[in-house]
Structure formats: C-alpha cells, structure tokens
C-alpha cells in the first residue's frame, strides 16, 4: 500500500502540492535505467481497426506491496470495508478507472459497498440497479480503522448509488466527520460521484470538514457519451467541482483525465482549459488500461514524453498541481510509501 505516517503534519497541504513531491518512481519498482530504451521502442502505439495493442515497456512494471499491505487488508475485511482494488501488480492501478484483475490496493477506501448503479464502459466494478443497502456502521468503522492506522492522508471514494435519495452524500459526510473527530490532523480527500447533479449533496460533503474535494471528469468532453454512463456528462461533473469550491473556497478541488481513448490534442487542451476556468486546483492525467475484454479497447498508448508535455501544459495553465504519467492515477500524491 502507498502509506506513510509522518510526525510532522502541520503543513501537509503544502507538502501535498510541492514540486519535489513523489514522482513516477514512487509507483514502480525494478530497474528504471531501462527507461532510456523507451525512445527506441518500435511497437505500435495506436490501434488499427480489428487489432489489440501490446503493452509498451514503460507499463511493464512491478507494483510494490508495502510492508503494511496484509495487515491493513485484513483489518478492512474484519470491519467489512472495501479498498477500491484488492489485488496488486495492475498496470491499471485500479482507482475508479477500471480495477481489472490485477488492480492494486492504495490508501483509498471505497464506501457504500462494491456494487455500482452505473455502467461506464471503462470500469469493471460490479453493477446492479438495486445494490445491497448501506451499512449504517460503515462511517464509524471506517473512521475507527483509519484512525488506528495513524495515517496522515486518506482518500475516501465510492461507487455511484443512484438508488439512494442523496446518492450517499450523508454517508460520506458522516465518515469524514467521524474521522476528523478521531484525528483532527489527518488530511481527507473525498473522490465522489456526481450525485446526478444534486448540488445539495455536493455541499453536504464539501462542508463536512474534508481537505480535498475530488471528482473525475474521466475523459475529454467529446468522448463523454462514448466512455461514461449516459447519466454522467462533462458539464454535470464540472458543476460538482465548481459548487464544492463555491461553498468552501479553501478546499482543494481535483479531477482526473484518462488518455489513450482516442482523444485529440486539441480536445485535451480544451478540456484542461474548461477545468481551469472552473478553478479546479489539481489535475492528474494517466494512461487508460482496458480492465477486461468486454470494456473499451485502448486506442493509443501515450508515451512518457507526451505525458511530460501535458504536465507542463497544466503547469503553464495555472493548475496548482499537475501530475501526468502513464502510471499516474487519481489518488496520485495522496500518500507516500
């Protein structure tokens, strides 16, 4: 797990956004000198009709399992909690971007069960119109477990629960409140659904005491209908991020974009521009990986050099922090090993 507890917590928000914070090396192990051969890679990077791309060398990396992995995983199971992904060695690195059979575990706890009411074409999380009811003890149990671990940063996320009146916003808020009561020093990021555009639900979480409000737009505006569930769209997601900042100006807002789905450079620039106009603070860009054969194929493997280009573009646009790389995911910089 990507977990580290630090005795110095007073300035963690600034540390979170430092330019010299963790980089791609914090996510991979193995001999990184091989990267000097990446430029010589002659394999196909853009998919032709009817073919399936082979994994390029920069994605063939070992994902390290920290010494606390088994201990924390067992605690989660004992308390009937979920991580976003429970397996290691995933080129997809899980998160809400698929979680295929090799997904990795992070310090990201998934609330409200493991079954989603939506069916995005990039995501392999289980779906159902009527998932099991919420566990009323989950906010308390989650806070208890996280506080006991002594972490200084945690990400709380969830499936979509369109079957619940407020989408589970109160459940989120209770978890944050319980956690902050137990450990006021811990930084909490909530990676939330769009709540069908219900801004009252967004406000409930934004005012719960969290430090980072995250919601993923997932892809460029032009590919939304192709990639996401029809109940999601770019403007609805943008309204979530705008409202969180409106009701709590001091909160950091954050979103993520997958590359490799067929988007153009101009579409990426336009999408990033729209996010900056909405005053989004932090942006991550990462490589889309197909979780199963039933999901969207990878249209292109974006090179590390191109990801570095988009990181510079983000910085030049004025994002407080931009993380861009093949293995970067939405919890990037959420913690350190």
Automatic annotation (TrEMBL):
Residues 101-320 form the Radical SAM core domain. Belongs to the radical SAM superfamily. Lipoyl synthase family. This is Lipoyl synthase, mitochondrial. Pathway: Protein modification; protein lipoylation via endogenous pathway; protein N(6)-(lipoyl)lysine from octanoyl-[acyl-carrier-protein]: step 2/2. The gene is LIAS. Signal peptide: none annotated. [4Fe-4S] cluster 1 binds at residues 85, 90, 96, 331. Residues 1-24 are annotated as: Disordered. Binds 2 [4Fe-4S] clusters per subunit. One cluster is coordinated with 3 cysteines and an exchangeable S-adenosyl-L-methionine. The keyword Chaperone does not apply. Its cofactor is [4Fe-4S] cluster. InterPro entries: Aldolase_TIM (IPR013785), Elp3/MiaA/NifB-like_rSAM (IPR006638), LIAS_N (IPR031691), Lipoyl_synth (IPR003698), rSAM (IPR007197), rSAM_sf (IPR058240). The keyword Mitochondrion applies. [4Fe-4S] cluster 2 binds at residues 116, 120, 123. GO terms for cellular component: mitochondrion. Residues 1-21 have a biased composition (Basic and acidic residues). It is found in: Mitochondrion. Keywords: 4Fe-4S, Iron, Iron-sulfur, Metal-binding, Mitochondrion, S-adenosyl-L-methionine, Transferase. It catalyses: [[Fe-S] cluster scaffold protein carrying a second [4Fe-4S](2+) cluster] + N(6)-octanoyl-L-lysyl-[protein] + 2 oxidized [2Fe-2S]-[ferredoxin] + 2 S-adenosyl-L-methionine + 4 H(+) = [[Fe-S] cluster scaffold protein] + N(6)-[(R)-dihydrolipoyl]-L-lysyl-[protein] + 4 Fe(3+) + 2 hydrogen sulfide + 2 5'-deoxyadenosine + 2 L-methionine + 2 reduced [2Fe-2S]-[ferredoxin]. Its main location: mitochondrion.
